[in-house]
Write a structure and sequence with these properties.
By secondary structure, the chain is mainly α. Helix content is about 55%, strand content about 0%. The chain has a two-stranded parallel ribbon.
Length: about 350
């Protein structure tokens, strides 16, 4: 399937056997890497239409229909964040900065959170790679599953899933954005304002609807954290190739834009989503040697994995200071998205 994607999309990598080093090239005047990026872009547009479609249907459809649509929207938030939005962070889809900016705003309104803020949080995640707390109890990764755990263990999936939403700290994210690039900080606040203003407008037009909608919006972000939890639970925070946990379930990866190849992604974050399978084939033996964890179900259903309990480690030593330095050094450098978004 991957070969067909490259052929049809005319996204031909340079002649090299190193998938991690290649950069896709296309003659498209619109897309930056491959014409196949039209698929996540089209999916994002349809997702936005679904978002507003729910508002339209609310006074017209039976409540049982709206409950089903609300649950689908919750699942689709996780699908968008972990697939469409995530891949956009690492490889912005368009050649033109204006199109990338508009797409970022579209994503912010659709999922109800600033894409630029998510970008900042996610790059911090890649700096820490789900690290354990240091001697002061701090983690580099703001959303590490070990941050609120005890004795070097990950916290429970239940608390991580339902409490992480309330632990988000927009002020910290804003300060980090402002430190790096004040212009991006401005656009991040703009995206927050637009999505909150959109919610307020919908509430003004139909307050019954916004009361119905908010729980599903919250639950969708919880599902995103659930997905993230099992992308690292059972991984090895001290082994770069095993930082993430992978799932190779085919339907899951086709629908979620190869989100399942998470160990591969953390090892080489810049590899395009259409090349994740090729990367895995190239490093499979190395992964086996370092003990990369692979689960059978999709990440959001990681609690159903038959090997779940046996993967829990009894002791997790505190990360030494040298490991902190090595972690930051070995991680791929932050992606400069300012040039691709700047208008």
């Amino acid at each position: 399937m991957i070969t067909q994607l490259e052929a049809v999309g005319r996204a031909v990598p340079p002649k090299t056997t190193d998938v991690a080093a290649e950069r896709l090239q296309t003659d498209s005047r619109i897309f930056a890497y491959t014409r196949w990026d039209i698929v996540p872009v089209a999916a994002a547009i349809l997702h936005c239409a679904y978002f507003y479609g729910m508002f339209y249907l609310f006074p017209r459809a039976p409540i049982w229909v709206m409950l089903i649509l609300g649950f689908i929207y919750s699942v689709s938030i996780s699908w968008n964040i972990n697939g469409i939005s995530h891949n956009f962070i690492h490889n912005p889809y368009f050649r033109f900065p204006l199109l990338n900016r508009l797409f970022s705003i579209l994503e912010s309104v659709t999922v109800g959170f600033s894409q630029i803020f998510y970008d900042c949080i996610h790059m911090q995640h890649h700096k820490g790679n789900a690290d354990r707390p240091d001697e002061a109890g701090e983690t580099i990764d703001w959303i590490s599953i070990y941050k609120h755990g005890h004795d070097g263990e990950a916290e429970s999936a239940l608390s991580y899933t339902f409490l992480s939403f309330f632990r988000e700290d927009p002020k910290t994210v804003y300060r980090e954005l402002k430190r790096k690039n004040p212009r991006e900080a401005f656009w991040g606040i703009t995206e927050l304002t637009l999505f909150v203003g959109n919610f307020v407008l919908l509430g003004f037009l139909n307050w019954h609807y916004i009361c119905f909608f908010i729980p599903f919006w919250y639950f969708g972000h919880c599902l995103s954290y659930l997905n993230g939890y099992y992308r690292h639970y059972g991984g090895d925070p001290d082994e770069p190739m095993a930082w993430g946990v992978s799932s190779y379930e085919k339907l899951y990866n086709w629908i979620w834009f190869f989100n399942g190849y998470h160990a591969e992604h953390h090892f080489r974050p810049k590899v395009h989503w259409t090349r994740m399978h090729a990367l895995r084939e190239q490093i499979a033996e190395q992964q086996r040697l370092v003990g990369v964890r692979v689960i059978k179900p999709p990440h959001a259903l990681g609690f159903l994995d038959p090997d779940l309990l046996s993967r829990k480690r009894k002791t997790r030593p505190v990360r030494p200071e040298s490991a902190t330095t090595n972690r930051v050094a070995i991680a791929s450098p932050p992606i400069d998205r300012v040039s691709s978004l700047k208008t």
